[in-house]
User: What shape does this take?
Amino acid sequence: MKLNSPLQVYKYLPKINCGKCGEKTCMAFASRLVDRSKKIEDCQILLQDKEKFLQLAELLAPEIKEITAGVGDCEVRIGGDDVLHRHQLTFFNPTVLAYDVWDTMEEGALIERVKKINEFKKFYVGHYLKLDMIAVRSTGESAAKFKSCVEKVLGVSTLPVMLCSFDPQVLKAGLEVCADKKPVLYAATKDNWEQVSKLALEYRVPVVLFSEGNLDSLKTLAVTFNRLGINDLILDPGTYPEGKQLKATFENFIKLRRAGIKESQKEIAYPIMAAPITAWMTDNDPIMASYLEAALASIFMIKYADIMLLHSIEPHALLSEVYMRETMYTDPRTPLKVDSGIYKIGNPTKDSPVIATSNFALTYYTVESDLSSGRIDCYLASVNTDGIGVEAAVAGRQFTAVRIKETFDEAGFDFKEKTSHNTIILPGLAARLQGDLEDVMGIKVLIGPVDSNQIPGWMDKNRL
Amino acid sequence: MSKELTLAEVIELLNNVEVESLEGVTFEGDIEIEIDESVMNFREEANKLIESRFTVGTVKEWTTAIEEVTIGATPANGGTRGHAVTIGGEKALPYYFDSEMKNPTCVVAIDVFDMPIQLAKSVRTSYEDVMESPSDWAKKAVSEYHADMIALHLISTDPKRKDASASEASKTVEDVLQAVDVPIIISGSGTHKKDPEVLEKAAEVSEGERCLIASANPDNDYERVARAANKYGHVLLSWTQLEINAQKELNRKLIKHCGVSRDRIVMDPTTAALGYGLDYAYSNVERIRLAGLTGDNELNFPVLSATTNAWNAREAWMSSSPLKEDGNWGERDHRGLIWEASTGFALALAGCELFMMMHPGSAQLLKKITRMLGGSINEEKTDLSNWITKLII
Ligand code: SF4
Assistant: This one.
């Protein structure tokens, strides 16, 4: 966005501090606009002055155009980024992951594959990671075949679809059965652009522009489509899976995003699409192709794909893909917190240990995975330290005897009833809380190791 | 952008875009219709492309090169290594077109432990037969798995393990230097109290080999470690935990107070596994690298990643999910290999040059792809014209 300090934004606000936006002052609202945690429509006063509103809206628009596909609960947002490096703000709108089906698939196999894409889920930090889109690929047999494939997919899935063909007749056939679902059209090229642009205008759907590694033609297409009034564009500069071509592909992604964000070149500031699926066009055997595809997915998730077309739906590959997406799109401005409370690891009994740690997500999950890898059945208390790690929280007094007691009290955890040993194990880094905690809670306090990876060894040597 | 139009002009306009009639519309009094100019131009431009050229500049702020650091000394330089490895020297983010890469940007050191250790099953199968002998382990890593370097971890010195003495451990260092001729990293057990003594002895017996001594960190007697590295001609690993300011401060102390020369510092700002803090590790390294490139001369050193930490993630090593809410996790061996490699890719793109790794397949994948990104693999070519229909699986 063109404005990046609250003070600059403040100048455009009504400056009456009415509080209707949920913020106490216009200045506070200005900061929320800058960090994009509020929307300009939230200021009802500004909404009444259309001219000013539009002016500010334009100044606050993200550098990279944000577009949507799909409808209802499954709608996805694509693009919308403002920075080149996630620590500078955060990346917005996690990479949309689309997996292919093709129109020569047997009906049974097709349905099964669509269901797998639909149903994939992985539990992570309190929510599920899922896949977003189904790409229906024409193998060139006929428009009718493609159309019927799209229909079958829609019959069993509400995920947004991407219609993939370079043949406008085929795309049209697909659109006829799903235009109301806001599919993504893939793709317009230098050869078919005239007809594809008509389809995009007629059906009002986002369209991918494709060029084989040539950014001049990509820009030519983007400028042309824009002039035709088509602005929901996605750029695919071609994902070459190997060799020097891969290097060139990587450079193209960097160039496009740099032009869009750093140089504010509006004509090219659209979301970018990567197609790691091209790994399956190489001579590699299926295992190597799946490794290559996962590698490309990692690389382009990091550098700058907003939407991605993939093939393998083997969970061994999907898991790292959805995790890498979380990695890049987690908001670095908010410390990751786990809900404070008492969690069961394995199947704890009355004789199992009770271990305390902070509710800083990274600490919590590290301890949790150390305990489960060590196969230690226990209760793990995530103490409310405001999402600060143990060492810093002890120093800053967010990790105190009182906070620990509160965590157990709120969870209704009674040591007398739940344990036979009336003992808690504190992290080594919180050793100095021992006396306090014994006084406050009236339980025995043991000091565990400094690093949770030593808990298994520590457990062997210490008795509760 | 809007224009005021007469009714006649409106009709002409609608005709232009092939609207022949409007139904159910009545005009009363003054009306204002805003029409995007792009629509008005539709007809005249619809049949030709607007040829455009794409250009983009380089990043002017990247004024400073990353220090070049050489690990390993050949006979010509007073050591016995078959080759040395030089990392660093970049003037841009990894694989960016702003500047050519000078040195290999992805050097892999395979981890070797001086006593058998618990390893994830997919990793263990590669080393099972050599775990009793660090020399055999190192040999296998070099000859079969093409390790560029060996990272020898003297974990037996940990008081909680064997509590081996510094001189016992340094025997292993000598053995490994005999067994392989690649440059080596010598790492303690991570025990802050004991490591300085262990590393000092190890540095002594490997004098002149220009090993990478791991590590000096804010919690150990880094002065002693640094003195040993200086005295016996080694390179020093400056290790901090996910905190850019701590890294800067430690580097400053090593240079200013401990007299470590700038061409002998490698940083390890800590690697966390994919899913378990990789977001912090990635951004931390990226910030460090950007600071270095833009002129912070306390941060422009090559960076090491302990990518093996990827195996801390249960998704890397467990055969299936312990949670019933999860679906199938797929084949463990493939999943683990990809996990370690993906962790490596993130750090390679953030700015790491040297990777300590374990799974031979992950190491190979990381090296192969980064060499492609670096432009040194030319062969494979793919034709993407009509790829949609060509790709039938
Ligand atoms: S609603 Fe608008 S005018 Fe009222 S306080 Fe918020 S920003 Fe200011």
